[in-house]
Specification:
With about 325 residues, the chain is an alpha/beta fold. The protein is about 45% helix and about 20% strand. Helix 2 links the parallel strand 1 and strand 2. Helix 2 crosses helix 9 and helix 4 (about 90-100) crosses helix 11 (about 295-315). The protein binds aspartic acid.
Length: about 325
């Protein structure tokens, strides 16, 4: 019996050593739980393009959308832990457990952790012909004309929803909210004038602001954003302490071999040093996290701390998704 177990272990070791030698032997999928063209997708595609150069295989971004990012995260949690499926997700990984009464996965139990990536601040933008002229006027308008305002977001679990919820709470108002499956379609609606206001990451808003397709009112941060030095913060405009900076991490299904985590992680870290990537990310207002945060253990600890941070805030706001 013992001999049988030893033979099985030996075979397992030989198999994993062999797999480690040949990994990656086929295309690797990086799941993004929001629509193509949105901020999470832009980040994933920027990194994937660079990774494919050092990783020895193509990294393909797949958009598995819906329910504020929880559908894509659930798909990866249940995927086979082969080393060929990864998830790129943001702060929503930490807010979903408080927002959803039933969640199909446990962020702290059902994943392996690869690396933290970048922090991206949020901005408050509106359709180009929206009446308020300044950030101050916008906040007054949202307070006094709340029943006329449509506020777009990507559903509970999305950071645009979190920001919308905190904004309404800070202003003491309730606006009409319109949900999309990512902020790419929300932004298209904003450009088309079908919705009024959106809170979204700079990685998507900056190019549209530069092209004058939308109006930028404020940074949803305490300190001004380096890439937008002339834009006032919500804190400056009177919403003291308001800050939504979005962090990002890469995960794999629980049980994914360490060799795969290490090699995929190494390619990710190389991409975060690629001058083409860093230039693009800096232009889009993103900040690459220090190397000490680019480890599996740092991501796991950060996620736990963020769940502990956001759970009481979300519960106090009284927002739930079914
Ligand atoms: N910006 C989105 C969010 O609100 C996600 C996306 O579309 O990438 O979470």
């Amino acid at each position: 019996m013992n001999l049988l177990i030893s033979i099985a272990c030996l075979w397992g070791l030989m198999f994993s050593a062999q797999a480690a030698d040949t990994y990656p032997s086929r295309v690797v999928t990086l799941v993004v739980p929001f629509t193509a063209g949105g901020p999470t997708d832009v980040l994933a595609r920027t990194l994937a393009a660079s990774m494919s150069k050092t990783f020895g295989q193509t990294v393909v971004v797949e958009n598995r959308i819906g329910a504020g990012g929880t559908i894509g995260a659930g798909i990866v949690a249940k995927a086979a832990p082969t080393g060929y499926t990864f998830l790129l997700h943001h702060t929503g990984m930490a807010t979903a457990p408080a927002l959803y009464r039933k969640l199909s996965y446990d962020p702290l139990k059902d994943f392996e952790y690869v690396s933290q990536l970048v922090d991206v601040p949020m901005t408050l933008v509106a359709r180009r012909d929206f009446a308020p002229k300044t950030g101050k006027e916008l906040l007054d308008y949202l307070k006094t004309q709340k029943e006329k305002v449509n506020l777009a977001h990507s559903g509970p679990g999305a950071v645009s929803h979190l920001c919308a919820m905190l904004l309404q709470q800070a202003l003491g108002v309730q606006m009409t909210t319109v949900s999309y499956q990512g902020t790419a379609p929300a932004l298209t609606a904003l450009v088309g004038g079908h919705v009024d206001v959106l809170c979204d990451q700079t990685t998507q808003t900056i190019p549209h602001v530069k092209a004058q397709r939308i109006k930028l009112y404020a940074a949803a941060t305490r300190k001004r954003i380096g890439a937008l030095p002339d834009t006032p913060t919500l804190d400056e405009l009177g919403l003291k302490g308001f800050e939504v900076v979005v962090w990002h991490g890469v995960y794999a299904p629980k049980g994914t071999p360490k060799e795969a985590i290490d090699k995929f992680g190494a390619a990710l870290r190389a991409a975060l040093k690629d001058p083409v990537v860093t230039k693009r990310l800096v232009e889009l207002g993103a900040q690459i996290v220090p190397e000490s945060k680019q480890t599996p253990a740092a991501l796991r600890d950060w996620l736990k701390a963020e769940i502990d941070k956001w759970t009481p805030i979300v519960k106090q706001a009284g927002v739930y998704a079914e």
